[in-house]
Design a protein that fits this description.
Strand order of the largest sheet: 3-2-1-4-6-5-7
Shape: globular
Number of strands: 7
CATH superfamily: Spore Coat Polysaccharide Biosynthesis Protein SpsA, Chain A
Largest sheet: 7 strands, mixed
Order of helices and strands: EHEHEHEHEHHEHHEH
Radius of gyration: 17 Å
Distance between the termini: 25 Å
Number of domains: 1
Number of helices: 9
Oligomer: single chain
Length: 250
Amino acid sequence: MYKNKKVVVVLPAYNAALTLEQTYKEIPMNIVDEVILCDDASSDNTVEVGKALGIQHIIQHEKNKGYGGNQKSLYNKALDVGGDIVIMLHPDYQYTPKLIPAMVNIIGDELYPVVLGSRILGNGALKGGMPIYKYIANRFLTFTQNLLVNHKLSEYHTGYRAFSREVLEGINFNANDDDFVFDNEMLSQIIFAGYGIGEVTCPTKYFEEASSINFRRSAKYGMGVLRVSMGHRLQKMGLLKLKIYEKPQL
C-alpha cells in the first residue's frame, strides 16, 4: 500500500518465458500489493513460469486477443481486485521495474493521475539500442500528435504507464482497438477527458529476447496513430462522435 492506496502491477505477456522471471524479481514488492499476469495465448511456457514465481493472478487467453485485448483483461482485473494505482510493465525486461516507486509516488501524492516512462527524455531510447528508423518515426509521430491533440508529451509510444483508479474508471478503454493502437487511443481518451499526465525519464533496452514489432506492423501502427489523433481533433471540433470518447458504463 502507498498512503492507503492499493498498488497493482499488470504484465501483458506474449512469449515472455525467457524474461518474465528477471522482470518479476525486480518489482519492488515492498510497495506493490498484487501482480497480475495476462498470457495472450503464448506458444512457450510463460504461464508455467508465472505460476512457479508465485504471481497472484494469472489470466490465460485461449486465443490471442492482441496487445490491446491483453490490456483490457488486465485493467478490468486490476479494478476488480481493488487497485488504486495500476502500473503496466512489459515482462520482456525492456523497461526497468525500478521506476515503479517513483511512478507510484507521483500518483499517490496526487501530483498527476497518469505517469508515463519516457524513453525520449534523456536520450534513453538511442542509448538503449532503439533502431534509428523507429526513433525517427517516434519523433515525427509525437510532433504531429502534439499538434493535433493540442498537448505536449515527449512521446506517445512508451509501453510503461501508470494510472490512478479514477482514470481507468473514467475512460472507455474497453471500446478501444485490440491491437497496438490501443495505447494511443488510451492516451487520446485521457487527454480528451482532461486528466494530467506526468513523465519520468526511463532507460530502455533493446535485445534479442525483448518484444518488438516488425517494419510492416510498425507502418500499420503509425497510420493508426495518425487516425486516432485526427479523430481526436475532429471530435473536439464537434465534427465526429466516436464511441471511444463516450463515458464508460460502470
